[in-house]
Amino acid sequence: xxPERKVAAEEKMREWCxxxxxxxxxxxxxxxxxxxxxxxxxxxLGDKGVIVFEDVKDVIMKNSRSPLECFKLFDLFHILTTDxxxxxxxxxxxxxxxxxxxxxxxxxxxxxxxxxxxxMTKMSYINAVIKGLKAVEAVDVVLFDSNLRTNxxxxxxxxxxxxxxxxxxxxxxxxxxxIDRRETTSAxxxxxxxxxxxxxxxxxxxxxxxxxxVGEWETYLPALQHAKELGIPITIHCGEVPxxxxxxxxxxxxxxxxxxxxxxxxxxxxxxxxxxxxxxICLTSNVMTGGAPSxxxxxxxxxxxxxxxxxxxxxxxxxFSTSLSNEYYLVAATFGLSKSELFQLAQDAVQFVxxxxxxxxxxxxxxxVAEKRLMLPAEFAAPN
Length: 384
Prior knowledge:
Layout: H1 3-19, E1 22-28, H2 35-47, H3 53-61, H4 67-80, H5 84-100, E2 103-110, H6 122-134, E3 140-143, E4 170-180, H7 185-197, E5 203-209, H8 217-230, E6 234-238, H9 244-253, E7 257-260, H10 266-275, E8 279-281, H11 283-288, H12 300-305, E9 310-312, H13 324-335, H14 339-348, H15 357-374
Parallel strand pairs: 1-2, 2-4, 3-4, 4-5, 5-6, 6-7, 7-8, 8-9
Organism: Eragrostis curvula (weeping love grass)
Family: Belongs to the metallo-dependent hydrolases superfamily. Adenosine and AMP deaminases family.
Domain Adenosine deaminase: 21-364
């Protein structure tokens, strides 16, 4: 294929990946903030003397950041999200951005924060997030509770037919409350109890995340066991670093889903595949943080070829300058997946959502409609 035709084919595939309805199961609220918003808010903090704006300005404006530059922004995220109005704004914009990429189901994970100086409690923080979700106007946001019943205060009809662009689209959104690995057992239990208390307001699950080299499994195990006893779905960051003891403990705990799984040894891979825990795959994130040596050597291929349940995700779309559409394109371009295989990959993710059968049925209807529009026989093959 000549260069011009190749570029045209690549662009056409990118457009197709945007049009594809998608399910996002691993998106951190803080790391998904828009660069333009991050720049504006950082400038305000600089004007107030809270940070030195020039120290972060160039990093924010970059589209491709080094791992060191990415980690530099984490501290900024934590400062920004100690303000209720900022949290509300970020939540609103994050949903709008995912909806613009034709994400039809979104689970956002975030760590509830306490900040006495700002009058912020874990509950007020989550209320600020929910306020942002309800402020979205570009699309209809459908929240549902962790009893897996659609929230009656919002419209719960299925998303409109994709071939009728005049109607307003819908996006299903659920919140996962994250236990930070730096937290105490007591603080982790508080987060689980908060998830139970807010199950009728859009909170549908628990996540364990944070710096993978910090903390001990035994510290947050009581909270995770408590969540399991309460029937709250759980997803856990697993194998971001080669911590043999914790990886084994996570696999033995058997959560509903795991994220990343970059650093498993042969025996751990064998166990993961035998118990078929769905994996949240974050290609760009794993390469940029060093969890995978390259896209070509990413463990996606091994899991995909083994027909292991998995879902493509962004992790931190703003931080890593990616989108869920781009993650699907990368899979096609790197591993040669056809449009048919990409479509099936996106559709299969419906099985792993922390939602009830009615929501899953609605999502499957969306994919059925989209299949008629997107899956033309002549376009099944991936571009060369």
